[in-house]
Write a structure and sequence with these properties.
The complex is a heterodimer of chains A (205) and B (183). Chain A is an all-alpha fold and 205 residues long. Chain A is built from ten helices and no strands. Chain B is built from eight helices and no strands. Classes of the chains: A mainly alpha (205), B mainly alpha (183). The interface between A and B is large, with 62 and 46 residues.
Amino acid sequence: MTAEASALSISVLGHEGAVRVSPSHVRADDRADIEAAQSGDRQAFDRLVERYQRDVYRLCYRYVNNHHDASDLAQEVFLKAYKAVGRFRGESAFSTWLYRIAVNTCLNFRAVRKLPSEPLEHDVADLSRGVADRLEEDELSDQIREAVSRLPEKQRATLILKIYHDLTHEEVARILGSSVGTVKANLFHALANLRKAMGRDKTGD
Amino acid sequence: MWTHPGDAALMDVVEGTASDRVRGHVAGCAECRRRTDDVRDTLAWSARAAVPEPVPAYWDVLRRRIAVGVGDERPSRRVAPLWTAAALATAAATLVVVLPVTRAPRPVPSVAPAAVLPAWSALPPADDDAGLAILEHAAPTAVAVTPSLECADVAECVASLSDDESEALADALRAQLRPGQTL
């Protein structure tokens, strides 16, 4: 595991809440199913899986950029969640808690596989045409996802959670164990680096 | 002194939540304006790079896999959720406030029923108790020395004796012993 990945992982696991989220953030339908799951009701946990499996799969996909690994990781995330559900105390939304497990699981996976986490400048495609015009092409989407998956750990996590999962800065901060200001700064850096990796940065800074 | 806003403040500009002071700076600073414009543009096209959607049937497959995995596991020990703790705290606080005000008469505590203990006796069953024969033989003596007792049987009568009465009975029995016999 890289030093940065390790640091992020530790902060995710050890964070006790720079941002306080009241129990009211737990959705009513989640609450009933969580309590039932905590008592060993597997059908209740299955309902939670059904509710969140798409979000967890997509988050994992952003990290590994292929279906096979994303599917295995999503499965692992839910198994970890089931084993730990008894310790969920409603201090945050269930989705926030689940995303935290997912981010850690993906970080561990990347550390074990030793996947690169630095932008590869020479992967840049020919973007002489307008980016908006080319977005319809699957190839460009692939390149963007690939560039995202190679961002530094904290920037990648921030960008994925904020842009692709539409979380608030506070929710991202909660998941990553950061302050809101750090999340905003990391997002700004992530977008600037993504632009550079895609060959859109004209200044070379 | 001309200080550029930090990246967090510039992100606020991109998202339209910056303060007037920061927005004013960016409006007059070519470098900050270029950086925010670039990030705003990147945000627009990067957000459109969607994850390929699996076939619809995949979600059922994933759920089944998870259900199989969960079947071999047990959830960790449950801790009281915060909402439960909050409810208990509220209830406790309500009791603290309400009880002194209402001052309801203290109810007489009900007497708990005596515990039913399993049948047990230190004495052997009556059929096996050789001592009963001796006591029956001594009954006239016991009645004689304890005229105040109204015993249903010999065993009850002897068990009810005080220490002095027991001594008197023992003396009476010894008096009836033949030479060489002991109690």
